[in-house]
Specification:
The chain is of the alpha+beta class and 488 residues long. Helices cover 29% and strands 14% of the residues. The protein has a five-stranded antiparallel beta sheet.
């Protein structure tokens, strides 16, 4: 018996909008964020899709998203990490009159079936055989695992797959004999002794993320807490001394899942911003380096505590700083902007652009709107806005107010995010932190030159193109020099 949306919300309520309870895992060529206990189910779904030769696109496939349900009331199942949308451009949401069954295309290729969807002749580029194999997936107790949105009678949501069982029902495991293509995927389900949850699964060579080879060193002056889960309220397993070597198995936002023994087994979670890549000098380039020496001067990220940074933001709620500072520091770490000049530049830029210390969307003003929202950004060649609707689509977002199609494309490519397809990603704190750091990285030479001459006007102009927010920028910078007890 299929479960209702309300029943599934209740069954999985412990995961609602709990980003720290999500794990980042491979799904074909993509990476998705899902509730920790569900990874085997998504592996099974990927196995079926790939066995049928179905191409999964990264740009229009997504999972966890804390939002309301489409055309309904209450939280979407995406908010619980138990739903996934696959290739939504060719599997669109259709709200049709009356009730009817899904319309499949009989074309032999996915490309041809997608054309039928575009022409309104079909609802999906998937095949009935593939969906039948998805719906055949069972647990070891014989419980059906997935429901498909194309099976809805009153609407068609063919992109949508959701879990149709409770955490307890899923915990008995997936029956591999019910999963077409399971053997080819070579999924290891060997659990790690003492691991807090399925985030501690042993990964075989075919599924290891590139980050499994990343070795880091703890740089927190007073030691770094190793926690049982990705939460500041989670149990502290131990404190890692400065200089302790760790292997980073994966990281998402401010948290890193680490291995202390070098055996690819998870030992716990730490703040990623308090790790430095091992066997490199402070000036070594990171993946985001743009040809400028990565750091000038010593690493000061460990000094950038919420208490210290609050002194730079006298009008800002401390809760905003506590919630967002880890994302900002993680971005600076990724871009190797860890010295005092660039750390103060980043934080002072936030003060000038979004004093509330949280990523926001640009509001309407006389500078961007004349008749309709953001129409003054339309057709702006300097912003790369060359398509109708680009003005509001690529308005300012994030900590640094990224603006214009050109910047969304350039910075998005640099951090590995398709911001053109989904501009709202720029307001997700973990992404916004990467955007801020990479934007500063592209201007690093000019910024350092200006700051070395104590020319705050030129430093601000390098980011903003003008002097907007200059007074707040200078005030924050000088407060920061005192708060961090350093001068440049």
């Amino acid at each position: 018996m299929a479960k209702t949306t309300d029943e599934l919300r209740q069954l999985w309520r412990a995961f609602q909008c709990k980003e720290h309870e999500m794990v980042l895992m491979r799904f074909g060529p993509d990476k998705i964020r899902v509730a920790g206990p569900t990874t085997d189910a998504w592996d099974a779904l990927a196995a079926v899709l790939l066995a049928h030769g179905y191409e999964i696109r990264t740009q229009d496939t997504d999972s966890f998203n804390c939002r309301e349900i489409t055309n309904g009331s209450g939280p979407s199942l995406h908010s619980f990490g138990i739903a996934l949308d696959v290739n939504w451009k060719t599997n669109p949401y259709i709200d049709h009159a009356g009730k009817r069954k899904v319309r499949f295309s009989n074309k032999p290729t996915q490309e041809a079936r997608a054309r039928d969807v575009t022409m309104g002749l079909a609802d999906t580029d998937m095949t009935p055989e593939m969906i039948a194999d998805v719906e055949a997936i069972r647990t070891n107790d014989g419980v059906k695992v997935f429901a498909w949105g194309g099976g809805f009678e009153t609407v068609k949501d063919c992109m949508h797959f959701e879990l149709d069982l409770s955490p307890a029902e899923l915990a008995v495991g997936i029956d591999p004999s019910t999963v077409k293509g399971w053997a080819a995927l070579e999924v290891s389900t060997e659990a790690i002794d003492g691991a807090p949850d399925t985030r501690g699964l042993l990964l075989d060579a075919s599924r290891r993320d590139e980050s499994l080879e990343e070795k880091y060193t703890v740089i927190a002056r007073s030691g770094l807490r190793l926690r049982s889960s990705a939460s500041t309220t989670a149990e502290v397993i131990r404190t890692l001394s400065p200089g302790t070597g760790v292997n980073v198995l994966s990281h998402d936002g401010p948290w890193a899942l680490v291995d202390l023994e070098g055996d690819y087994q998870a030992d716990g979670f730490v703040f990623f911003s308090y790790l430095r890549r091992a066997n490199t000098q402070a000036s070594s380039p990171s993946p985001l380096t743009t040809g400028v020496p990565a750091t000038v001067g010593r690493d000061v990220l460990n000094l950038a505590t919420p208490e210290a940074i609050a002194k730079m933001f006298p009008m800002t709620p401390t809760g905003n700083i506590n919630a967002n500072l880890p994302f900002v520091l993680a971005g600076l770490r990724a871009a190797a902007l860890t010295d005092v000049a660039m750390v103060l530049m980043a934080l002072s830029t936030i003060r000038a652009e979004t004093e509330g210390f949280r990523p926001i969307s640009e509001g309407r003003s006389r500078f961007n709107t004349r008749f309709s929202e953001f129409d003054l950004y339309e057709g702006r060649r300097d912003l790369g806005n060359n398509e109708p609707g680009d003005g509001p689509r690529f308005k300012g977002r994030g900590y640094v107010q990224l603006t214009g199609r050109h910047n969304y494309k350039r910075i998005g490519d640099s951090i590995g995010m398709n911001l053109i397809a989904d501009p709202e990603l720029a307001n997700e704190p973990s992404v916004a932190g990467l955007i801020l750091a990479q934007f500063l990285k592209t201007k690093e030479r000019a910024i350092r030159h200006a700051l070395s001459a104590h020319d705050f006007v030129a430093a601000r102009r390098a980011v903003n193109g003008g002097s907007h927010g200059l007074e707040r920028f200078v005030d924050a910078f000088k407060r920061g020099e005192t708060a961090l007890s350093v001068t440049i």
